[in-house]
Amino acid sequence: MKNILVTGAAGFIGANFIKYMLARHEDVKIIILDKLTYAGNFKTIADDIDGRRCFFIHGDICDEDCTDRIFTEHEPDCVVNFAAESHVDRSIEDPQLFLKTNILGTQNLLDTSKRHWVTGKDDNGRPIWRKHVRFHQVSTDEVYGSLGSEGFFTENTPLCPHSPYSASKASADMFVQAYADTYGMPVSITRCSNNYGPYHFPEKLIPLIINNILEGKKLPVYGDGTNVRDWLYVEDHCKAIDMVINSPEAEGQTYNVGGHNEKQNIEIVKLVIRTIHDLMQQNPEYRRLLPDGDKGADLINDSLITFVKDRLGHDKRYAIDPSKITRDLGWTPETRFEDGIVKTIQWYLDNRTWVEDVTKGEYRHYYEQMYKDR
Ligand code: NAD
Ligand code: DAU
Q1: Which of 185, 192, 214 is nearest to 202 (CA)?
Q2: According to the model, what pLDDT value does residue 1 have?
Q3: Res 154: pLDDT
Q4: Which DSSP symbol is given to 309?
Q5: Atom of ligand 1 nearest to the CA of 105
Q6: Which ligand sits closest to the CA of 200?
Q7: Could you tell me if the CB of 142 is within 6 A of ligand 2?
Q8: What span, in angstroms and rounded, lies between the C-alpha atoms of 336 and 32?
Q9: Which of 135, 154, 253, 334 matches a 20 to 30 Å C-alpha distance to 327?
Q10: How are beta strands 28-34 and 2-7 bridged, if at all?
Q11: Ligand 2 contact via 139 beta carbon (within 6 Å)
Q12: Active site residue 242
């Protein structure tokens, strides 16, 4: 049995990951550690926690006592570190929080893993590691910075982060690499492009646009809407991590993960508008979700778009070259964007209670503050 400590699994990708793993591996045990910040929602994972194959611990990755206790009690042989402050806009408002969680938290997890996984020292004073252990860091393409209109990020692209968020993620990656280089720790890193899919918090572009349409609000597009992101369906990201942590040859490696699916933000926003409009035509029941019912459905069109003040330091374009993970491990994405986006939008239409749950508290205040001067 593989015992995996998954941090941040009450958030978007972590929750999808544990569901993916539990559905595909009979012999996996998952221990979730999550602080349940504004981005973590216990209800997302409540049905997965059975005290047999899946456990939940409410705690902070920065808290050494907490992570130590988890290692003593559950003896994980793999850590998959999703826990992070993940939103670029928030990092511009409060950089220090990102430094604490994303850098110090990762370093504490590395230290705890080292304390529990090192079994002794060899004659040269080098740590001897327990067999078959792995520390996996979930990273991002944003550590590479921004591209012009040509080219792709490869694993050899120099790190050049711009936002406080990406600077904290790059620093965490370097700590992971430092533990491998200095202590011989078995590690791996994946750097993925923008994910989309179920359970995505509505502060991020796609779920924000869906939610605003359903609430009859304007759709804020930063700058002129021509910034490019490279979108990947979340389950394909989960599949990549599963392959990496289960492949001995992936030890010590960094892999870029992406599906060659570049889109300008404005294209995404128009596509979401069109898709919701069409779904409302096909299924009139969905119109009941709108404040103005049938009348509201007729107003779902591009006139909802409003161009607003740009994000500070806004990276122009991200695009991933995933050929290393395809070549080495045989990973390829399975979900075509045209299918994934409809599936995602349909999920949001069918799960209004989840959205209302995560947007009713701090989110309203956040939205007002973040968008009031734009
Ligand atoms: P998210 O914001 O939806 O979820 C983050 C989770 O971490 C939440 O459940 C939150 O409660 C938890 N958390 C935050 N601080 C914590 C702490 N100190 N201790 C324990 N738990 C804590 O994030 P996401 O979008 O699911 O991203 C997950 C990871 O994947 C992040 O590391 C992010 O950098 C990376 N990533 C995200 C994307 C993307 O498109 N969303 C792409 C590439 C990489
Ligand atoms: O590339 C991977 C990264 O993708 C992850 O590391 C981050 O955790 C994740 O949040 C995401 O970062 P982005 O900044 O690319 O995602 P976001 O959804 O915030 O924005 C996507 C694009 O849409 C970006 O160019 C900014 C723009 N945008 C965003 C919002 C929230 C808008 O135009 N309007 C908006 O209201």
Answers
A1: 214
A2: 63
A3: 98
A4: P
A5: 18
A6: 1
A7: yes
A8: 30
A9: 135
A10: parallel
A11: no
A12: no
Contact of 272 with 209, CB cutoff 8 Å: yes
Span between the terminal Cα atoms of the chain, in Å: 51
At 265, list the tokens: 């933000």
Tens-digit pLDDT profile for residues 31-79: 999 999 999 999 999 999 999 999 999 999 999 999 999 999 999 999 9
pLDDT at 337: 97
Q: Is 141 a catalytic residue?
A: yes
Task: Please write the tens of the pLDDT for every residue from 223-252.
Answer: 999 999 999 999 999 999 999 999 999 999
Res 294: pLDDT:
86
Please identify which of the residues 141, 203, 230, 242 carries the catalytic annotation: 141
Instruction: Report the distance separating Cα 43 and Cα 41, nearest Å.
Output: 5
The pLDDT of residue 144 is 98
Helix count and strand count (H, E) for the chain: 15, 15
- 137 beta partners: 81, 189
The reported pLDDT for the residue numbered 90 is: 98
Whether residue 319 has its Cβ less than 6 Å from ligand 2 = no
